[in-house]
Amino acid sequence: MKERNEILQINTVEQAHNLYDDGNIRQGERTVKSLLVGQEGAPDNYKFAYSYGEGDSEWATPRHRHLFDQIRHPVEGDYSIGKNRVLPAGWVGYFPESAYYGPQVMSPNLRMCVLQFGGATGRGFYSTTQRKHAIAQLKAKGTLKNGIFQWVDEQGRTHNQDAGEALWEAACNEPADYPPSRYSDLVLINPATFEWREDQGAPGVARKVLGSFTERDIRIQLLRVESGATLEFGTQPSSEVLFLKEGRLEADGTVHERLTGFGSAAADQPVQLRAHERAELLYIKLPTF
User: Fold this and answer.
1) CA distance 107 to 64
2) CA 183 – CA 214 distance, rounded (Å)
3) Is 251 helix (H, G, I), strand (E, B) or coil?
4) DSSP 3-state helix, strand, coil percentages of the chain (rounded to 5)?
């Protein structure tokens, strides 16, 4: 049996720290609330956040790729992920490491869950502390503008680099050596086309199983928990994330409202979450290493 080595992570959008208070490397204004985080230095380190627009400003990036995986779920508004390409509200997108996407545009009315985590190759993901220090390091060397990091070398030559790639190199202190992509493109999933299937081991719990990816068994599901029913969470040999989209869930004697994130580490004991009204959640199992 797993030994519990820390309490279940629970955080709400209202309580969460705005990551962009520590610096924004892209064009436009967004609020990015960091709800859950993993362990710095671990191959499955992660950040789960909820983002929304500010004023009339669009947030944009050039076409680029990453050395980590992402799962994105627009809750309200549509998300432009490339020329004539949109991830609609309610859909889920799996963005594999090394796969190109963009230019992306986030309108002010877009509200979206974003999970960024170390992918199957085990390169990991930088922590919020590493990100903050890396931004300060890049600003001391050059400029961050419109998603590009620009600096001048000792010979007076000007260099331009994608800001996300430059951030990775500064935060992780290693070159952006992209591995071959396991998937040639993003995977865009329409949950409305999936059927709810009752969980035979958990009365009152139903699942939409949206996909399993890579040899590390990354899983994406939607869960529905009826009022009074109990969901067991934290049973897998990896980190797991839940995001409460609708309804109310009780954990450790406290009732939590919508827009709450729950995180369990691989070494944690499973916990029981009880619905006080019908609840719908996004569930993600992170890679098993």
Assistant:
1) 19
2) 9
3) strand
4) 10, 45, 45
pLDDT tens, position by position, 198-245: 999 999 999 999 999 999 999 999 999 999 999 999 999 999 999 999
Cα–Cα dist 132/56, whole Å: 26
Strand partners, 150: 143, 160
Q: How does pLDDT run across 121-166, given as a tens digit for each residue?
A: 999 999 999 999 999 999 999 999 888 999 999 999 999 999 999 9
Compute how many other C-beta atoms are within 10 angstroms of the C-beta atom of residue 3.
7
Other Cβ atoms closer than 10 A to 151: 15
Residue 93, burial from CB neighbour count under 10 angstroms (0-12, 13-18, 19+): buried
Written as six digits, the tokens of 260 are 């709450």
Residue 7: CB atoms within 10 A of its CB come to 9
Token pair 């591995």 is found at 179
